Amino acid sequence: MQSCESSGDSADDPLSCGLRRRGQPRVVVIGAGLAGLAAAKALLEQGFTDVTVLEASSRIGGRVQSVKLGHATFELGATWIHGSHGNPIYHLAEANGLLEETTDGERSVGRISFYSKNGVACYLTNRGRRIPKDVVEEFSDLYNEVYNLTQEFFRHGKPVNAESQNSVGVFTREEVRNRIRDDPDDPEATKRLKLAMIQQYLKVESCESSSHSMDEVSLSAFGEWTEIPGAHHIIPSGFVRVVELLAEGIPAHVIQLGKPVRCVHWDQASGRPRGPEIEPWGEGDHNHNAREGGQGGGEPHGDRRDEDEQWPVLVECEDCEVIPADHVIVTVSLGVLKRQHASFFQPGLPAEKVAAIHRLGIGTTDKIFLEFEEPFWGPECNSLQFVWEDEAESRALTYPPELWYRKICGFDVLYPPERYGHVLSGWICGEEALVMEKCDDEAVAEICTEMLRQFTGNPNIPKPRRILRSAWGSNPYFRGSYSYTRVGSSGADVEKLAKPLPYTESSKMAQASSSKQQPGHLLSSKCPEQSLDPNRGSIKPMQVLFSGEATHRKYYSTTHGALLSGQREAARLIEMYRDLFQQGT
After folding, report:
1. What is the pLDDT of residues 197-253, one digit of tens each?
2. pTM exceeds cut of 0.90
3. By three-state DSSP, how is residue 154 classified?
4. Would strands 313-317 and 261-265 be described as parallel, antiparallel, or unpaired?
5. Compositional bias of type Low complexity: which residue ranges (predicted)?
6. Which has the closest alpha carbon to 377: 568, 137, 124?
7. Which is nearest to 49 in space by CA: 305, 300, 282?
8. What would the pLDDT profile of 499-533 be if each residue is shown by its tens digit?
């Protein structure tokens, strides 16, 4: 790129000269989930007109996937708005009337949300016995006390002892077991039931954390995740309505569906080996497969670069089209980054970012919906929870592939039946979820039916009339459900993942001192971004930005975290070009 300091533009504004020659900065957003749509919408609203969203799949929404069957809508992905006070997802839904049909039972307050707060959870054992309600309540109180202790290590800086192995699962299991065994009032039979319930609760916890096992979740970092106050809400018409609201303000031609990206070639003006040759974009016979087939609006996408300039970023798509850009916002999941980062970025990512990707965790949480002709559960039952009595002394939650079904923690009852019919929603996570994804519908329905018969003690339960299930782990565009802080990782890794490239220091200085730069820092257009390496020319800042739920330190794993992360990255670019837009260029 031609040095701005040699032009007639202000020397303290190294971006403006190139922009005044060729107009708007070009921003490419990879992914049309909540993060990508939020970023694109924010940029367009602030005057950016050369924005393109590339979505690999045939739909928008990412890990929000609402499926309509008959009159009911089922969520294969995100289900609840977690918290209402200051939650942008809640306020968007509320302002647009999406919660008008949400029943009181679907506004549940509590850490673990069922589909309805009405009724009671039925805890059943593999011997066909129902655990007495008073035993369940006593155990639940004990478990929640210990759960609250897991929050204190981060929030109050408590040291983690060696026995816990810095693991939420190890700490919780041993602490709860010790308290159960030390209780002088419980008979041995009751203690055995409570000991077996530990594993069931940890399975539920693993599904909520999207980890293979809570043993893999960091104890010292667990309390950093922040819960937004207020109730959890279900959107009766489907969570995809939030996605559609975000997309409403985005011109149809901006979003290109069925457009997977092969590689992001960044730092192209630095003297590094160049990326692929540019095909003129927007010309010829390329079919961009725009959402709804819409065209028009915005600027043409032809190459407007002067001969003495180079695009800092080239986005190479799977169909061999190469799209030049000034900035790319990458919103792909942590699972995709783990699997593909080495080939997805050229040059490769800095070592500290790669290390953060490896340290952070992402797992698979899947749902199994079973529809029955008639309910075999009582009207007071809001869920069927599976407790294996032979797991009272177990210390692991990993099963051989043929026993994958043991990881199903239970089935929730979908309420109200007038909307959903008679439907149960099962939950499974971890490696066992991946095994389940490889099975066909008939096999999964058969195994689930056998489990329901076994745990209820009712051999006459019929097979479901219909089954619907998710498969987030094997989907190549996701490779998992959502992220968590794995043992050995921390919130600092989330910040490293979110840090834009290239770093504002030279590559060597960046890796030595990157922890000093916070990802929330918004670069001003008044900051000269010259390379400290005399062999390299001017380096354009923020060529590659990162968003998505895994990049939000406080709200990772949530839809509001994803949306806020997209707005955060858009804000970096808006701040970067603020002076230029204020001048009316």
Report:
1. 999 999 999 999 999 999 999 999 999 999 999 988 999 999 999 999 999 989 999
2. no
3. helix
4. antiparallel
5. 506-518
6. 124
7. 300
8. 999 997 543 333 333 333 333 333 333 333 333 23
